TrEMBL record:
Keywords linked to the UniProt accession: Disulfide bond, Glycoprotein, Glycosidase, Hydrolase, Membrane, Signal, Transmembrane, Transmembrane helix
GO CC annotations on file: endoplasmic reticulum; membrane
Lineage: Eukaryota, Fungi, Dikarya, Basidiomycota, Agaricomycotina
Listed GO biological process terms: carbohydrate metabolic process; ERAD pathway
Protein name: alpha-1,2-Mannosidase
Catalysed reactions, semicolon-separated: N(4)-(alpha-D-Man-(1->2)-alpha-D-Man-(1->2)-alpha-D-Man-(1->3)-[alpha-D-Man-(1->2)-alpha-D-Man-(1->3)-[alpha-D-Man-(1->2)-alpha-D-Man-(1->6)]-alpha-D-Man-(1->6)]-beta-D-Man-(1->4)-beta-D-GlcNAc-(1->4)-beta-D-GlcNAc)-L-asparaginyl-[protein] (N-glucan mannose isomer 9A1,2,3B1,2,3) + 4 H2O = N(4)-(alpha-D-Man-(1->3)-[alpha-D-Man-(1->3)-[alpha-D-Man-(1->6)]-alpha-D-Man-(1->6)]-beta-D-Man-(1->4)-beta-D-GlcNAc-(1->4)-beta-D-GlcNAc)-L-asparaginyl-[protein] (N-glucan mannose isomer 5A1,2) + 4 beta-D-mannose; N(4)-(alpha-D-Man-(1->2)-alpha-D-Man-(1->2)-alpha-D-Man-(1->3)-[alpha-D-Man-(1->3)-[alpha-D-Man-(1->2)-alpha-D-Man-(1->6)]-alpha-D-Man-(1->6)]-beta-D-Man-(1->4)-beta-D-GlcNAc-(1->4)-beta-D-GlcNAc)-L-asparaginyl-[protein] (N-glucan mannose isomer 8A1,2,3B1,3) + 3 H2O = N(4)-(alpha-D-Man-(1->3)-[alpha-D-Man-(1->3)-[alpha-D-Man-(1->6)]-alpha-D-Man-(1->6)]-beta-D-Man-(1->4)-beta-D-GlcNAc-(1->4)-beta-D-GlcNAc)-L-asparaginyl-[protein] (N-glucan mannose isomer 5A1,2) + 3 beta-D-mannose
Length: 195
């Protein structure tokens, strides 16, 4: 009985090591097998071929970050504003967060920090007309609306002192308040701001 047991467990061990060996072999083959264009797995790490940004003086790094932001935000202004977001491959827009122009609200603090005053003013001119109606077939998501819209408005107000941002934050927060009218007092996932 004991011998049979030893015999079986030895076989089980052998099976396990064969399976492990085959698995390792497959991975090695996968890595080394030449792909259709004749090269095998690309071991070069693209990170190494990029400039070493850490060595740049911080002013130059800041300028590069600002350039990247201006690239993205000016495309938003050109192709998507006042919709929510830019679809950057097609140069069209998408309404993903209530349809009130979420990118403008989200970007207020960045626009201010980067001293992009004309963009900031253009955003304010849309924001001051926002009415926060339910534009879409979906209700307004509480969490997303608080972090993006209310947060954006309050950050913009804190930095610029523009009263319209504070009053819009208040107006929107009032519309969101009924989310707490649940049995537990925990906020509902979403609400219709028009009811
Ligand atoms: C989108 O706009 C950019 C910048 O104006 C342009 O280079 C690009 O070709 C456009 N893409 C499409 C799909 O039209």
């Amino acid at each position: 009985m004991a011998r049979a047991h030893r015999f079986l467990s030895r076989h089980a061990r052998n099976r396990t090591s064969i399976a492990t060996g085959a698995f390792v072999l497959l991975i090695v083959l996968y890595i080394l097998w030449p792909s259709r264009d004749g090269r095998s797995f690309d071991f070069s790490t693209p990170v190494d071929s990029r400039p070493n940004y850490n060595k740049w003086p911080k002013e130059r790094r800041a300028e590069a970050v600002k350039e990247a932001f201006v690239h993205a935000y000016s495309a938003y202004e050109e192709y998507a504003m006042p919709a929510d977001e830019l679809k950057p491959l097609r140069n069209t827009s998408i309404q993903n967060f209530n349809g009130w122009g979420v990118s403008m609200f989200d970007a207020l603090d960045t626009l201010w920090f980067m001293d992009l005053k004309p963009e900031f003013e253009r955003a304010i001119s849309y924001i001051s007309k926002a009415e926060f109606h339910r534009h879409q077939k979906y209700d307004v998501m509480f969490f997303e609306t608080v972090i993006r819209y209310v947060g954006g408005l309050l950050a913009g107000y804190a930095l610029s002192g523009r009263e319209v941002l504070l009053s819009k934050a208040d107006e929107l927060a009032q519309k969101l308040l009924p989310v707490f009218g649940t049995a537990t007092g925990m906020p509902a996932f979403a609400i219709n701001p028009d009811t």
